[in-house]
Amino acid sequence: MDAALPATPAADAPLTAILDHLQAALAAGAPEVTILALDPDHGAGCYAGEPLTVDGVAGRHRPWRVWVELADRLELRLGTPRPAAGPLIAVRFSRRAPTPALPRDPRERYGATSDFARASKLEEPGFVLDFADAVARAGLTADARVLVLGVNRGDELALLQRAVPGLSGSRMTGIDHSPSALAIARARFPDATLLEADLAHLDRLGLGAFDLIVAIATLQSPGIDDRAVLRALTQHHLADDAAIILGIPNGRYRDGELSHGARMKNFAQPELGLVVKDLAFYRKYLQQHRMQVYVTGHHELLVTGVRRARPEP
Ligand SMILES: C[S@@+](CC[C@H](N)C(=O)[O-])C[C@H]1O[C@@H](n2cnc3c(N)ncnc32)[C@H](O)[C@@H]1O
Hints:
Layout: H1 15-27, E1 32-38, E2 51-54, E3 57-60, H2 64-73, E4 76-78, E5 82-83, E6 88-95, H3 125-138, E7 146-149, H4 155-163, E8 172-176, H5 179-188, E9 193-196, E10 210-216, H6 226-237, E11 238-249, E12 251-254, E13 257-260, H7 273-288, E14 292-297, E15 300-306
Parallel strand pairs: 7-8, 7-10, 8-9, 10-11
Antiparallel strand pairs: 1-6, 2-3, 4-6, 5-6, 11-15, 12-13, 14-15
Helix pairs in contact: 3-4
Bound molecules: S-adenosylmethionine.
Residues 110, 121, 150, 152, 155-156, 176-178, 181, 198-200, 216-218, 221, 223-224 line the site of S-adenosylmethionine.
């Protein structure tokens, strides 16, 4: 090993020593780093870092959550741990590949040939659970009219049909400016109305009013004036007793992995300033428009506004 690198930490080393070793090895250009650790199955009930001796080997308990979080925060890939000597396991971290260049056509940035098209919202457990809860708050019936902005390949449409039994494609409208993503959505949902349009010009589409409007990871897209779109939605496209779900990304995909936390240029760790600003604005705006507002989510923060019809006097 390079003499300049901190020594490979022993199984009873503190987390800070592991962190120092990983960061120094990565800075020195190592493609991957392996750490020997106690198999956490030996430490059920122990807290992270709690000293533990197993079969005469001194170590510290660390649940998988710690290794997963460490890889996530350093934007590394975590390999499947392999058995090592005795109660030890080998935990391997490797670098993620850089993000491929975006398609040149700005409308195809998230199109069928983009890296984004390989990721599926339907395979993110937190999103599936949080979105189902948000839709349940809207209290929709099968005849509800639903609008999805930035519909892309239609993942949200699939989750809406899962959450609202009997909701047919013909009650769903989706808008996007990516022709290739819309072609996939049309094949998946032949009955839905799927419009190729710019969200800046919703007024040209003759959309009418909806019982639920969904915009996931869309209002933050370059070139979109999220405040103007939100104003247009609340003034012209929300029915009296309607709901809205706005998703703000709080993570990013890289080389197949999703890392938590909004990442800003020149920050090694997540910086949430813009996320908090947008979240606070949406929450206040929807409250001012007589909505009860809920904020949920993890990698995707969901601001859900539900407007209940005023009870008859
Ligand atoms: C980050 S993707 C999110 C897609 C999907 N909602 C999801 O969460 O998986 C943003 C989507 O908004 C679309 N989009 C971005 N700007 C747009 C605009 N000005 N008009 C219409 N669609 C736009 C993109 O083509 C893309 O499908």
